[in-house]
Amino acid sequence: MNAIDKLIKGHIDFRDGFYHENQAYLQELGCKGQSPKVAMITCCDSRVDPAIITTSKPGDLFVIRNVANLVPPYVEKTSSWHGTSAALQFAVCHLEVEHIIVLGHANCGGIRSLFASDGGTAEDSGFIGAWMRVIDEAREQILADPSLVTEEQQISACEQQSIQISLNNLKSFPWIQERVLKGQLELHGWFYNLVSGKLLKLNETEAAFQEIYD
Ligand SMILES: [Zn+2]
Q1: Nearest Cα to 74, choosing from 214, 142, 172?
Q2: Does 162 lie in the same domain as 68?
Q3: Are residues 11 and 91 in the same domain?
């Protein structure tokens, strides 16, 4: 079965299964509009599906996906196309979500590209190279850290450190900052290990990731 036939069969299974079993809920959701409490910024990586790993239903999560789950700063100097920022504005100012989660993950190809021999600056790195500049600061700090010896250690550190940078960048948006200060919006950093299936949460005070299960 080719990839498209597989999707069509999967859709038929969805119609006969999940849709049929949740028809009333899905129809009401479709007619009344969405009111998710949580916006989640995740990587495009096909192995990281936020709804599956949190057992969420349609309508629960406002998902913003991009390469390496990055949030650019409020003032983007190098781009005129603000896809992630526009989605954030919709989630925060129109849907009034109560939480934003930056969900990073292990074995991220986008982060790995930053540690290629050319530092991701080759001409053919194109859009990806330019986008990954959002976390240049993390890359530089990691390369200067003598405790991170191997490339794998550097990549792992960057996967987690980039989440803190994205949280800092979220706070640079005035309409996010205002809601956080009023206690209307909380920001969270999560990290998903796609091999063990475990989630970690960032403790910003201690600058460390901890088990999410306590
Ligand atoms: Zn990724």
Answers
A1: 172
A2: yes
A3: no
Same domain flag for 40 and 21? no
Residue range(s) defining the domain that contains residue 7: 1-32
Instruction: Give the DSSP H or E segment for 3.
Output: helix 3-14
Q: Return the number of other C-beta atoms located less than 10 Å from residue 11's C-beta.
A: 11
- Give the side-chain half-sphere CA count within 13 A for 190: 25
Residue 150 shares a structural domain with residue 194: yes
Instruction: Tell me, in angstroms, the distance from the centre of ligand 1 to residue 14's CA.
Output: 27
- 78 with 135, same domain: the answer is yes
- Output the CA 125–ligand 1 centroid distance in Å: 16
Using the mean position of ligand 1's atoms as its centre, give its distance from the Cα of residue 44 in Å: 6
Quick one: 48 and 97 in the same domain? yes
pLDDT tens, the chain, 214 aa long:
899 999 999 999 999 999 999 999 999 999 999 999 999 999 999 999 999 999 999 999 999 999 999 999 998 655 567 899 999 999 999 999 999 999 999 999 999 999 886 655 566 678 898 899 999 989 999 999 999 999 999 999 999 999 999 999 999 999 999 999 999 999 999 999 999 999 999 999 999 999 988 6
Phi/psi-derived region of residue 177, left when phi > 0, alpha when psi is between -120 and 50, beta in every other case: alpha
Q: Domain check: are 119 and 26 in the same one?
A: no
Query: Number of structural domains, the chain?
Result: 2
CA 149 to CA 142: how far, in whole Å? Answer: 10
